[in-house]
Design goal:
CATH class of the largest domain: Alpha Beta
CATH architecture of the largest domain: Alpha-Beta Barrel
Low-confidence stretches: 1-14
Number of helices: 17
Largest sheet: 8 strands, parallel
CATH superfamily of the largest domain: Aldolase class I
Distance between the termini: 63 Å
Number of strands: 8
CATH topology of the largest domain: TIM Barrel
Radius of gyration: 21 Å
Bound molecules: flavin mononucleotide
Number of domains: 2
Order of helices and strands: HHEHEHHEHEHHEHEHEHEHHHHHH
Amino acid sequence: MDGKKLIAKRKAMGDGRFVFNMIDVIQGKALLAPLAGITNLPFRLIAREFGCRFCFTEMISANGLIRESSKTIEYLKTCPEDQPLGAQIFGADPALMAEAAKFVAGHHSDLIDINMGCPVRKVVKTGAGAMLMKDPLLAGKIIAAVVNAVDIPVTVKIRSGWSPESINAVEMGRIAEDAGAAAIIVHGRTADQGFSGHADWGVIAQVKRAVKIPVIGNGDIREPADALSMRSETGCDAVMVGRAALGNPWLFRGIDQLFNGVSGRYHPSLHERQTLIEKHWEMETQIYGRRIAGRTFRKHLLWYTKGLTGSGRFREKVGRMTDSREILSELDRYFEALAKSQTELMT
Ligand SMILES: Cc1cc2nc3c(=O)[nH]c(=O)nc-3n(C[C@H](O)[C@H](O)[C@H](O)COP(=O)(O)O)c2cc1C
């Protein structure tokens, strides 16, 4: 693998985007995983505020990009504070993926990630996503086509294999490296596991031993200590966090601290939590408008309040409300009551 592809040449393209060396940017860092329907611009900005060093868009259909469907292009929405950004694309045709990659590279992304891990039926039935774990030859052609089409780094996100009987992450890692990928992201579950069971970090370690390009480990990081364990057990260069970041962007701060030898507090106070919820909602409203934000922010409200005293009742109430002002007032009342009960407990 020559070092050439590791260097992004955005400067030469003159759009002022981030110029970086892959390993310098990710080494020893926590990255936010691509999450469909979740990792939009506001969510990424919030994660970055708490120390996340690299974010990805959710997976974007290469087909949709080629057709220049406005809904698909919306997924590429970004801003200067949202750097460095990886745009994840999926598809099963090398030429089409190359076209989509060119389109993405022209829309302010610093890196392209190819999805080879999505197990969702709608995706695998088209031969894309995790289905490519079953066809390493085609996977290699897709990676090479995308690498040759753009002058920004290309990464590949894979599973450990399709099923326990066909674990082939090491083979896929080598193929990705030979095709010119700048790094490989390994989610240590098989495709047929979906998101259940445990991620096998042993597979991440095997890939790390087999390739020279950076390896990003993913799966089951719930606490800062898990990130540290994954790094020491697998030797991975960076870790990627998915579900545990939902309602808990503070996790990135905790990981950052621990990676730097500090095991400080990372849980927010009630006031910090409420302030962040309101800020996140405001960002969603500003970027997508009140109507869409009112619909899409509900899930974040549930994640942000999960595990807090009386959150079940709060969610039930809010679930029946449609007016965002009404929901915000209820949020205020709920946090006031929480603060009051906390004070009473302390006195
Ligand atoms: C709701 C949801 C949406 C996801 N969307 C994507 C996606 O768009 N692209 C992708 O590569 N992986 C996607 N994933 C997988 C995650 O990126 C990650 O690999 C997986 O959740 C394991 O990491 P975790 O244990 O830290 O959550 C998704 C997972 C979930 C739960």
